Amino acid sequence: MNTRICAALIVMMGVGTSGAQLVSSHSASANSVQPAQHAMPASMSASAPAGGSAKMTPPMEVTGKVVARVNGTELIDRELVREMFTIFPYAQQHNGFPKELEPQIRTGALQMMIFEELVYQDAKRRGMTVPAAKLTAAEAAFKKQFPSQGVYKQFLQSETNGSEAAMRERIRRSLLIEALLDQEVNNPGRVTTAQVKAQYDKNVAQYRRGETVHIQSISIMPPNQTKAVQQEARKRADDAIKAAKQAKSFREFGLLAEKMSDDDFHVNMGDRKTTETINLPPPVIQALAKMKPGDVSDLIEFDNNYTIVRLEARTPAGTTPFTEVKAQLQSDMQKEKTEQLRSQLAQKLGQSAKIEKL
């Protein structure tokens, strides 16, 4: 069931006067529809407060007060808090919201609630309905998300005073919102392969790349420039190059790097992954120019350090083919298009609506 039943359903249950008491971690749907983009900063979109060091603001006290009216329909604080938890689910772990972000989270949650109510009202004005079979299936799928009938009844009591009919209406409301958004946003927002290819061809220059190499390294880096230290470093470098030249595989060279290298990559078998050749130091570039995959360089000396590199793979300069970028490009284009359509719908519905934020 692809729906947001009860706004952010079951993220929280049992909201009392002391605030949101988290007693269940059910979600409305694994693929819940997103009628509007939450107004939240990119810095909080996918990460919890670093190290738990951020100052947290407890969830607002829930009293059942009205937080907004949309053409006379009242939206209450219980739904606002629930929507805030949807935007920032880490609040469950930290018992609150980052203090500096809480106002933005609250604003985004309220905007989401208002938008959904506008969409619902518009769906009713259009005379849209939900087929009985679809409603029954959605209701059954919803109930299955609870671990037991008792837990469901507990939730039902807290949400609708135990009324199955009231809960059914909430499900119907969610399905109507979903249906209108499919009609106005999601379906028109789909991008065809032909459109994606046209976008790729138009911007093909950005998919051109220089030569890349996948290398491993062993670096001898003396801590200072005293004669004794430099002599010791040279001896270590000579020992390292002798051993490295005997390495016949990624693993053999990597084990040497772990044992002999001073650079940060030694903890990962000297693996520097794939990088554009042009980003490497000139002496390393010159050495790589003479190498083929599997080769180990001679000792490379620069900046008073010694380096040995092994070439794992080389990819010539060229253009990343359409087949490799198609999926991501299509996703990006579709996201941009649906956001534009959603924004346009919100603006259109809001123009003639009476909205009061309290």
Q: Gist?
A:
With 358 residues, this protein is of the alpha+beta class. It has eleven helices and 13 strands. Residues 1-52 have low confidence and may be disordered.
Task: Explain what this protein looks like in three dimensions.
The chain has 358 residues and is an alpha+beta fold. The protein folds into two domains: 15-190 and 352-357, Porin chaperone SurA, peptide-binding domain (Triger factor/SurA peptide-binding fold), CATH 1.10.4030; 211-316, Chitinase A, domain 3, CATH 3.10.50.40. The chain is built from eleven helices and 13 strands. It has helices spanning 77-87, 91-94, 102-125, 132-144, 149-160, 164-186, 193-202, 227-245, 250-260, 282-288, 322-351, and strands spanning 15-16, 19-20, 56-57, 66-70, 73-76, 97-98, 208-209, 212-220, 271-276, 300-302, 305-315, 318-319, 355-357. Strands 9-8-11-10 form a four-stranded antiparallel sheet, with helices on both faces. It has a three-stranded antiparallel sheet with strand order 5-4-13. β1 (15-16) and β2 (19-20) form a beta hairpin. α6 (164-186) packs across α11 and α8 runs antiparallel to α9. The longest helix is centred in the C-terminal third of the chain and has 30 residues, at 322-351. The chain is elongated and about 85 Å long. The model is unreliable at 1-52 (pLDDT under 50).
